[in-house]
Specification:
Layout (H helix, E strand, L loop, with lengths): L9 E7 L12 H8 L2 E7 L12 E6 L7 H10 L3 E2 L2 H7 L4 H7 L8 E3 L7 H7 L5 E6 L9 E4 L3 H16 L4 E5 L3 H4 L2 E7 L2 E8 L20 E4 L3 H17 L8 E8 L5 E7 L13 H18 L1
Parallel strand pairs: 1-2, 1-3, 3-4
Antiparallel strand pairs: 5-8, 6-7, 6-8, 9-10, 9-12, 10-11, 12-13
Helix pairs in contact: 1-9, 2-3
Length: 312
């Protein structure tokens, strides 16, 4: 009987966090699927100091969802790990949502955003004047994961507007950059579509329903916000925007070309055209359970990358 972790076998680390030491349930089937491809894969917590990252042929970031409060530490860790995917410079770029501004400059349709810089020492009045005059709006830090630190407010309600100002000022006082965006009403009706790409090719799509119901409350903060999901069929328009987004990312950062995994999150604008909410290249849920071939597709891509890393 062959030892499943004999030195001749390829080894892959599936990176997770201490709160999910055995991976998110969606990723668990990858271990068996990779074993079928003669890759010994195991969940490994990213900040475990005992891990020998160099002993793996490939290190794949998966459910490292506690990075946001420690982003600098996480990026430094990524830069220290050999054969990491997605690459460390992609992770450094993608873990700050300021990347959306760079994509917008390259023609990717994005949600109009007001960016607040903590170094400007903005007053409550200055924050107030930067909020939308009509409709609901969203406040969130540029570094966050799983809707952490995010709240939705009604611009015409004085109480909620005041809560929004306090939310933004609290984030700025912590030295965090802040985004203010009009809330996209289509999220409440048609939902948000996530297009998943594996090895640079479209794999499958899901629809996420509305997550934000009101102002941010710190005591309700958790590792991530649970989502209501459905399988989706991507439209040609959505696919075109998703591919345009990935191409623009590669223009900004050549190492972002043909990433091992990517998720492009889109929502319709006021006239129904798809626009980008986020490009997830760091540790996105890939919702593998929502497509019958997705686990095999992802396992094939990991096994091939591991083999290439071994022989290079």
């Amino acid at each position: 009987m062959t030892d499943p972790i004999a030195p001749s076998r390829l080894r892959a680390a599936l990176v997770t966090c201490a709160e999910l030491p055995d991976l998110d349930p969606d990723d668990v089937p990858l271990v068996a699927a990779l074993a079928d491809r003669r890759v010994a894969a195991e969940p490994v917590v990213w900040d475990d100091p005992a891990v020998d990252w160099g002993s793996y042929d490939l290190v794949v970031v998966r459910s490292a969802w506690d990075y946001a409060p420690r982003r600098d530490e996480f990026v430094a860790w990524a830069r220290s790990v050999p054969n990491l995917l997605n690459a460390a410079d992609v992770i450094a770029w993608n873990t700050d949502k300021a990347y959306l501004h760079e994509l917008a400059e390259r023609g990717v349709p994005t949600i109009p955003t007001v960016w607040l810089d903590p170094d400007r020492n903005l007053s409550a009045r200055a924050v107030h004047t930067r909020m939308p005059a009509h409709g609901d709006f969203v406040i969130k830090p540029t570094v966050s994961a799983g809707a952490q630190g995010t709240g939705r407010y009604e611009s015409g309600d004085a109480t909620e507007r005041g809560l929004g100002i306090r939310h933004a000022l609290d984030l700025l006082a912590q030295g965090r950059h802040v985004m203010i965006q009009p809330y996209q009403q289509a999220v409440d009706t048609v939902g948000e579509t996530g297009l998943i790409f594996v090895d640079g090719r479209f794999s499958h799509a899901i629809t996420k329903r509305a997550l934000l119901s009101g102002p941010y409350e710190a005591e309700d903060a958790s590792l991530y916000v649970r989502e209501r999901l459905e399988r989706a069929v991507a439209t040609p328009e959505q696919l075109a925007i998703a591919e345009r987004t990935l191409a623009a990312a590669a223009e900004v950062l050549p190492s972002a070309a043909k990433p091992l995994y990517a998720r492009v999150d889109l929502v319709p604008d006021a006239v129904g055209a798809p626009q980008l909410i986020e490009l997830e290249l760091t540790e996105p849920s890939l919702f593998l359970a929502y497509d019958g071939d997705a686990v095999d597709r992802f396992a094939d891509a990991i096994a091939l990358r591991a083999l290439r890393a071994r022989v290079s």
